[in-house]
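In keeping with the milestone schedule agreed at the kick-off meeting, the structural modelling team has produced records for the first pair of proteins. Each record is given below as a sequence line and a structure-token line. The laboratory manager (R.T.) confirmed that both were archived under the project's standard naming scheme.
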Amino acid sequence: MLADALRSREVEVKYQVDGGDPAAAAERALAKQGVSLGSAVAQDDQAYAPAAWSYGQSKIGVAFARLRTEAGRVLFTVKTPLVNELDCAEQETVVADRAAMHEALLLMGYVPTVRIVKYRRTGSWSGGQVCLDVVEGLGVFVEVERLVSADASSLAVQAELDVWVQDLGVPVRRVTQTYDSLLRAVV
């Protein structure tokens, strides 16, 4: 049962960074807040959805899958949005064979949706993890995420994270969709 798996969940906020050199502006602003970002890591993601689901339908309560290749290893992730797209129950594990896991997902009734290629730099701050993403076809984003208990209010956490990002002082636009939905909208 999904409720049993919700001991903790990932809650995030996401912002597109605007301006002349958005990555550099965001990096400077994060550094002023004490966030030191690591080196950029390439992430090649293939998103999957249940065959019966399609873009335009609600994602709430639907389990979505992802295969990510990063630094020579493959991660298999399942996320189920709870209150909104950026509040998810999540499980992740390393898999040995991306092609075999792809075939397994097809057998389980999932279909590939969107491929997402990005370069991610991560850092931490006392309230969670910060990601600076350069997403092919979309631009530069700041993502702030926090693991919370099952009974925490995701909307309250998102509001708190929003204040933190707005205080960075860089021109940002909050987005409430995941990268796959954003990419799908521009295709």
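The second protein of the pair:
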Amino acid sequence: MTAEFAASDADAKPLWLVRDELPGALDGAARGWAEACGFDGSAGQLCLLSDGSGGLAGALFGMGKPDGKAGRERFFLAKAAVALPEGAWRIETWPDGVDRSEAALAWLLAQYAFGRYRKADGAKARLVPPEGVDAPRLIAMAEAEFLTRDLINTPASDMGPDALEEAARALAGRHGFAVEVIAGDDLLDRNFPMIHAVGRASAQAPRLIELRRGESGPALTLVGKGVCFDTGGLDIKPAAGMKLMKKDMGGAATVLGLAQMLVATGAAEGMRLRVLIPAVENAISGAAFRPGDILTSRKGLTVEVNNTDAEGRLVLADAMAYGAEAEPDWLVTMATLTGAARVALGPDLPPFYCDDDAAAAAIQAAGLAQCDPVWRMPFWAPYEAMIEPGIADLDNAPAGGMAGSVTAALFLRRFAAGAAHYAHFDIYGWQPSAAPGRTQGGVQQGARALLAALPELLAR
């Protein structure tokens, strides 16, 4: 779906953002009406204003105290976009502390609705782009987010490995990527044994999807976990654990959204951009891989499978090793990888891992500036022993259950050798309940942070 601002401000109605005092521009009748309605600028309060002849003259929207609810919630102004009547609106007043770009992006994000299976509408009010904002860039961000949300929200019945490949090919066609897909037993012939092992039990063949764009400049390789549904394999999840497993391809959805964003904003120009997606379903059949199996990865490292439900790191490892062989400047993984990350930081704040202190600081700062927060966690070297089982080089699911996100990141880092820099994002990819600008369901995390930080990262 598309995101849009108002085409013109010619017929736009004024919207006053109010903290405590009514704007001085209000005439006496409007001021009296607002006071009669009990409007006091409380956070989220809306007051529509009449033109005196049955028409709409404008509206007041409460922002509350700077340290109150509006200050705590990202994209707070999306509440106004949803509440206002259809039509064009322009913001007349900007209280201290209200960021214009965030407000405009919030308004765009409020337009999202997932309507594949029933009619659904997002906000119908359209905002005149505030002075000083980069409207095309914000539209590109919002539309990339919509792509990611649509992919995650689509159930596995319509978003298996076949459909994920189709989505990647569609994006490639729109934005000038070359595409290569290696599927089924060809994965074995081309030395992707762990992708094959995880996906071979499914009715849809496992595959590695590769997109490439650009012939010169710094190289950025994005690897996204594409587990289209995760039963847990033979270590089967309980029913409650499978309920959200259509989102286990959230890493793939996020790197596709980010790739679109990079092209649409012009950031992909002058770089070699590569996207790798191991697309599988972790299913159960006589061909399923088993607990206790030892797999030999593309890199040659052997991996003891101590839990078939820790499959994401296996498919990522083969794709990462392949990506690292080209020695990119940056290798970035995005994956809905561990429940431990959610226990540590909750659904809103995905952890990321990066050995480069300055780069990590740039990513974290960019995330805060773009309302796309991420939090750095450590590649804690003393825990390396936890992923070394003795019978093989690596253990995909260390016993004990401690430091699960850290040990998963350490596991992945073993396959990043060759890349000049590596960062891993352990995202959730899901909004458990509706929030301003974010409907319940799939959500993009970390992509805007990376977009904003990339100029500094690629200069390193």
